[in-house]
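Subject: sequence -> structure tokens, single chain

Hey, anyone have a minute? Need the predicted structure for the following. Not urgent.
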Amino acid sequence: MRPASSARARPGRTVVSGLETHHNVVKHIRSFAKPRGASAYVVGGFLRDLLRGSISDDLDIVVDGISPESVAHRLHKDLGFSQPVLFKRFGTALTVGRGINIEICRLEGDLESDAGRRDFTINCMYADILKRGVFARSAILDPTRRGVRDLKAGVLRAPSDPCLMLWLDPLRILRAIRFYAVFGFSIDKELLKAMPRMVYLLGRISPERIRTELEKTLLSGRVRSALRLMQRIGASDIILPELGRTHGFSQDTPHHAFDLFTHAARTAAHTPRDLTLRLAGLLHDLGKFDTRSYKRGRAVYYGHEAVSADTARTVLRRLKFPNRLTDEVTFLVKNHMINYSSDWSDKAVRRLVRRVGPHLEQVLALVEADCRAQRPEPGMIDGVRDLRKRIRVLGQDDLIHLDLPLDGRDIMEILGVEEGPAVGRAKDFLLDAAAGVTRPMTRQECVRLLKAWVKDTDLA
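Reply:
Had a minute. Here:
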């Protein structure tokens, strides 16, 4: 992979002048470890970020001669940090407080052997807590003798055999992609060669850990190339098989210049840096794979937005995304097909706005990204801009917040029906009717319209 011209700071990290909390933490660890003849080191990402000019709120510590649990309890007792959380499988202890997360684990042998088990050389730098000036650049230890050099060069390199490093924790495959996407690091050719060989091991990783890496990658500035790398090494086939199968799938329409995978990646990249929108952009057309048919020799995808929404929900649930975010993404996917033209009546515009409600801006952002990710056609983008203008003229807030004077129970009582699809159809009918007027409809008007509507409607 070609290195970027400069490595960017991680989003959410700010360059600050003070290290008071961090100094206080290492001071207390020193006072606890030194009388016991133990060793303790700061290691990894905090030192990496420090050398790059930013301060992380995550502080990783390795200890020898004392247990991680005892150190975490000391911080809890002395500094009021949270009660330690123990991860017995990994032999680590986590405690949180004062805007900082402390994770403590045991040193594996000496520094050289411990470094050999870590992910990348840039995360294999140590600072001896028992010595003063622990955060001075001159105090940083580099047992691989590559960490500082690779950090300056913006290179991800395994500190030992790349296949062994990935076998120890296969999530490192996604971490490499994330570092490439977020920081702009290049990937060493030996590590890049090992990634597709070991990618099958991602099937053993918990959905929660995969989700965390995916989120950070999607919010990066290089999301399109990162997704392409993910597909190239086979990772998408394992963590997002519904997306992986779209690679090479020709959409076979005049408006699409790219295969479905590339279109999805481009759509995600064209959305603002918002996780809901990035996910919606990535997943919005997954249903095309199952809905393609041909009409007069041209590919059509009738109803693909509904199938895409169902597939997106399956993906997000499998990866343990929060329910609220899942609902928002699936709503956007289901409502992304807006074939607007200047021929639309004001009633049609009002109907759209009321249908999507408070999600209007997100839907329009997704539609615009979708247009930009197709074959370049300026008229399509102009259509979205024209729609935005008409919505402003009609009064967006009034359109969104205009409620019907009837709810579902009222409709069931008026029509004499049980809860079911008929209630939704009746409500849609009333919303369509309301879209044709510029004032709130009264209850009496709604009742009259419903009674007239039901005479000509089969509710079965």
